[in-house]
Amino acid sequence: MDQDLISKKELLEICGISYGQLYRWKRKDLIPEEWFIKKSTFTGQETFFPKTRIIERIEKIKNMKGDLSLDDLANMLSPNLTELVLERNDLKEREIVSDVTLDFYIALHGNSEKFIFEEILFLYVLDKMFKSGKIGFEEGKIVLKLLKDQYSKFKGKNCELIFFRKLGISSCCLVTQIGDIYFEDHVKLIETLNISESIEELKIKMV
Fold it and tell me: I need a surface site. Which of 24, 43, 63, 198 has the fewest CB within 10 A?
């Protein structure tokens, strides 16, 4: 689960922005705090970023800031998700969740016309896993129970969902540290899904 990182110096050169712009965008919450990764190097401590995500975000800011103020951009890219509520039709119209996944969720938890952000996140993650074809409905129940029981402990943290099987028995977990994970023999890694990336994708779809 290692990610490709880019140093702050390289980022400023590649994107053609200044140190001041970068940290002004950070203060406006245009760039998430957790993307600023401190690492020790032979020259001391340096700041690194997830390369693909930070470059994509900076290009988006540069392309849009001519038409929008920084505050408008911040509201779009970093909305207060805890206050957002969407109706069932909204989820379908914005292509956040498929009918199949919605029906699966409603069969388990009862009919609902409105969904808070946390429910939408769980549905979105589940939908991505169903669409990949890597898990079925029974395994979806395992994923959903994990998210409902444990996700609250990871709010505000960069975490990943790991789904695996051993001798035909499925299980999953949430982890915060990004690095190599080694399983015992006969464990097959089925899927790893970054929750923070899913949240960033949802921000765009929900505003």
Answer: 43
